[in-house]
Predict the 3D structure of the following.
Amino acid sequence: MTLALLDARQWQQAVDLRSGRPSEAVSPLGGMVGDILARHPFPGDRDGGSNAWVTDTALDFVARYDPGFAFLAYAQQYYSSRYGALAPETRRKYVENAFAEAARFARESGMTTVLVGTGDLVPATTPIDLEDLDGLAVASNWCAHYAGLYDLSDRDRETLARHPHLERIVPRQEILDLFGGGPEDGGRLPDYMAVACRGGFFKGSSLRRLVMVPEPSAVIPVSQNLGPATSILDIRPRLLELLEAGNRVALALLEGVGCAEFQPPYTTCANGKDWFRYEPGDAQYLALSTGRHPIFEHNGGYRYYLDDGEHKPYPFSGYFKELPAGTIGEAYPGRSIAVGNRSMFMHVCTGCDVTCECFARNLYNQGLMSVIFRDDKMVR
Amino acid sequence: MECDYCERRCRLGPDSFGYCKMYRQEGGRIVERFPDRWCAYGVSRVETIPFYHAWPGARCLVVGTSGCNFNCRYCANAEVVKVDPAGLADIMLDIAPEAMVAKARKHGCHAIVFAVNEPTVSLPTLARVAEAAKAAGIAMGCLTNGYGTPRSTALLGRIFSFVNVSLKGLASEFCVDYLSVPEAGPILRNIAALARVCHVEVTTPVIEGVNDQEMEAMADFLAGVRRDIPWHVFRLLPEYRMQQEHYPSIEALSAKVEAVKNRLDYVYFHNFIGSRWVNTHCPSCGAVAISRHSLGCGGDKLDTFFAAGGRCPSCNGPIALYGEHVAWNAKEATA
């Protein structure tokens, strides 16, 4: 059983991660984790202290668990820019703060800290309305650039082909061909994928007005201390090489930061393949963590709610009905932690022994969740 | 001319739009400024909204417009509700009633639920959607603050077959300070009126030290209407103008919930992750009739439905339900 500890501020509840039901199970790490959660209440996604929370909490885990690998995510500048009309100097201050917090973690933990920017943001200039289709367009709150299209009529196809704000309409087969999939891989791909123009976003999927959206970037910056990486898929093997060489290593993702704002010396790596570029999100995290393109399972156009019925396993893991395999935390035999303010991706995408994330959904801050995947490494 | 959609009864003119900014006067009639315009829609579980006793397990198309006739200090949707609706024109969706119903069908939804802002500010549009939904066999539900006039409340009761009314407080001082309305009287009147014509659940966000001392009085009022009204006691999530304030103590509030739970058949305490107070227990024998997960802002979720036929699995006593248990993908085949 995998134990998840929920912290709703001054109140904690342990649950079985798979069933979601309360659990009385005891983990040797449970007390330590509970104490850390209680010491570090989450200030909120857009709060000025959000990135400091990541560093403070991660350092607390480092002090008590002594991991060889840490997976960190810093996202305050991403959330604040996405929904707030920030003055340029405010945006610059937020980005500087993210780098400063990652640097503080590196300094105080002594870990070799590899920084990756997940891509530039651009102004959300062009709302795209696909509501008049005979078929179905599926866009999600956190994926501005791609929409799934289903059951299109001839009229729909004509409309979409002439749409001034769509970069392209990609049939399922073309996605399968691009990523080397067979017919059996297409079950979670839409009939077609609509790709928005730069600055475009699909209307109706976000309650809040979008101010900035992911570009999404063709290449993303990686700090030079990783060594050569030409593709996002190369980051994982390079990290594992560093770890195998005996280094204590941290990977810190700086959300919504691309080459234009990246501060330390960096190289660039491809953020996708051909026309497809990752937005900051589950697919990008999994590409980084597994070293494989996960687009057949995780794409912006799947009707995720189909999986959300009664008895769906992992009710505290959002739309995930299983935990992806082959993650970097799984591959590393030493102790590992993941801490971040990008909510459930920490426990779903990293595979680390112990994960800690904000339990904020759609920016509503309800506390924290920590998942203990491995509690057998302390006794070594 | 006076608006008679809500008890604010604003004066409307061709260029004066009232407190909610959603109506105006035109040719001696009150008309909507933004008919058939929607801020967003999404697919959600009925338990998330929350409805615990209506169509358990159902997939819903959750929709909203903009504007509100309240100004709650802790509004969770202030970025849609508290801005001038005219300023959202570029991102609003233009969806005719028949198209909205078609959308619900395409998404395999059992019901359409209005749950972002206050339905009273968009009643004519919602009446047209209800007409189309009725023809398509799709149920309609809503959240409301219950501040409509008797006429519009009657209309609300015809449009929606299941309604969750927010009873936020009783004292006039609280209503003025926290909601910007003078009193709770119309809300109490409308809860009773709606309970006569449709399924009603009630939600109360509780602020420690502010309205928690009213919990007994609220429970007694609801029991006087119907003892089987499900009551959702919410731990307040401090948002909007209360964002910097403390989160209420779950331990303290749960003790208060325990103290009043025998006054009604179904009392729940949630709006935070991992709540233990979200299962439906049989009022007769206490057995679990419906189990749920409390995902806080991630939305609640049905775990297991044991109350087949509206009966307790243990003693066969009645469990108050509106509609039947709906399998999540039941409408996919016909969508």
In short: Chain A touches chain B through 46 residues (CB under 8 Å). Chain A has two domains: 27-122+215-372, 125-210. The two ends of chain A are 21 Å apart (CA to CA). DSSP finds ten helices and 20 strands in chain A.
